[in-house]
Amino acid sequence: MKELRGKLIADRIKGECLDFVGKYNGILPALAVLRVGEKEDDIAYERSIKKRFVDYGLEVKDYELPANCTNEEFQEVFDFINDDPEIQGILVMRPLPAQIDEEAMLKKMNPLKDLDGITDANVAGVMRGDKHAFAPCTAQAVVEILKDYNIEMAGKRVCVIGRSMVVGKPLSMLLLKENATVTVCHSKTENIKAVASEADIVVAAIGKAKKISGGYVREDATVIDVGINVDEQGNLCGDCDWDQIVLKASAATPVPGGVGTVTTAVLARHLVEATKLQKNL
Ligand code: NAP
Questions:
Q1: Which CATH number fits domain 137-260: 1.10.150.170, 3.40.50.720, 3.30.450.20, 3.30.460.80?
Q2: Mutate to test the pocket of ligand 1, among 167, 192, 202, 225 (most ligand atoms within 8 A of CB)
Q3: pLDDT digits over 261-275, tens only?
């Protein structure tokens, strides 16, 4: 079985970013990361973004608010980064605490700074297949991996398990654009094993450690594991049971080292694209 590792793809995207920064000397694309509270996962993600962006020649500006901040305090910081011409991209760590009016934030967010495709303008753009729309980075990362490893999508049956707004739904649109025949499964789908084991490509995005066993995958299928979970031993693992998948699939993404690695690189590429759009380059 072939391991579909993300590092080479991330390195290629790093090259694109460094080329941009080298070509437009004096323009330093900047991402604002807005975090409310001290959730461990958010802090870890923020740290990995910072480390990667420094390598890619890009800037990250942190904006942190306490978990008990008021909606007014949050909106004030958000308005500042949304309007600041020195910031070309915004990543808001979500979900936000209940007191924050997320809808109000989404309505005013500049779609050109919306690198993770959460505004209505980008959701609609992805639906239409608009090449300038920003798709959520994880969904885009799945397509990047399939393209980069020359795994045919056109005419193939793809089963996406999970229908969230950050992965399953936008990914189904991106796959349709690639002319795949897409089935989306979720927690109410009956007999997912039967549906998934018909597919040429299975994408697992459910957030359940090792739930997708060999029984979900037909011989020689490709498996993309989006999940990031912690198993009973405290180790990072995906939504797929890797030990079983390797016996059935022809190719699969590892966790860690697969989709997550490419997701952060796609975020970096989106920042460069956003900078070009905002500065008419
Ligand atoms: P989410 O918002 O919790 O959505 C999970 C989806 O999976 C829902 O649509 C849910 O169905 C479905 N689901 C849950 N249990 C299921 C089951 N037993 N059978 C079938 N469907 C089931 O999660 P998410 O944000 O999409 O994230 C999914 C996973 O990807 C998580 O492990 C997350 O950590 C990971 N992730 C990774 C990256 C990355 O960069 N690699 C980025 C984002 C997320 P219903 O809609 O019916 O509830």
A1: 3.40.50.720
A2: 167
A3: 999 999 999 999 999
